[in-house]
Amino acid sequence: MGDSVKTAVILGARSVVAQALAREFAAEGYALVLAGRDTEEIGRIAADVHIRSQQPCTALAFDATDVGNHDTFLAQCEEILGGLPGGFVLCFGYMPEQKDAEKDFTLVQRIIDTNYTGSVSICERVAARFEARGSGFIAVLTSVAGDRGRQKNYLYGSSKGALNVYLQGLRNRLHAAGVQVTTIKPGFMDTAMTYGMDLPKALTASPEAAGRAIFQAIKKGRDEAYVLFMWRYIMMIIKAIPEWQFKKMDL
Ligand SMILES: NC(=O)c1ccc[n+]([C@@H]2O[C@H](COP(=O)([O-])OP(=O)(O)OC[C@H]3O[C@@H](n4cnc5c(N)ncnc54)[C@H](OP(=O)(O)O)[C@@H]3O)[C@@H](O)[C@H]2O)c1
Fold it and tell me: Is 35 in a helix, a strand, or coil?
């Protein structure tokens, strides 16, 4: 993470993890744009970040699926922050119940439009700008669900898996330009997305711990980071199970 431009944009800012991350950036002296669909609520979040840190923090409307508006959105970010931001963190995501999505393709379409198409639309536009400048960081919250397709979550998982592959290629492209691309694979986090799920405590990160881990991964210039380290090993084991055996498992 280059310190020359201490400004950042956080997309999907109503997520409690995005909020914790915003506080980490602000505490380190970053001016921020917090973007998402519910600008009224994000306005309150931005005011809270500003009061705690005294750093400029502005709410801005953003819809990942409105790809026709993404260039305008980036121009607005530049106007607010006084130039091309130092970095972007993509925290938005959509995960309906897999069983509901299996019966209704509009939900599947929304998963792909939000998690994959929306992310690629923003990343491509930011990549071109950062490549021309020769600096910047892009961090994206994907998912361990993208590491291997499972019957209980493959519609959401495949959108994140495609995003993982996209980010590998983008990192490869932007390395020579000095632009950092960080793939964050959170594992379980205690947020609205997992509300009501019976998650194992030891494998579930609090929003604050996740915010800290994500900020450190960006700061250290990591290529890929799991929020809780155990997930790297869990996924190594899950990925190593042969397909003939995996297909018989109820995962
Ligand atoms: N929680 C977990 O265990 C877990 C695990 C792996 C990965 N993740 C990923 O972590 C990230 C943060 O999620 P979370 O757990 O904090 O869940 P969350 O509270 O549901 O946050 C997701 C955010 O994405 C925003 N969003 C959805 N569709 C959008 C769109 N079209 N345009 C703009 N914003 C949109 C939502 O905005 P609204 O507030 O307007 O609905 C929401 O604030 C996501 O990428 C998620 O896939 C989470």
Answer: strand
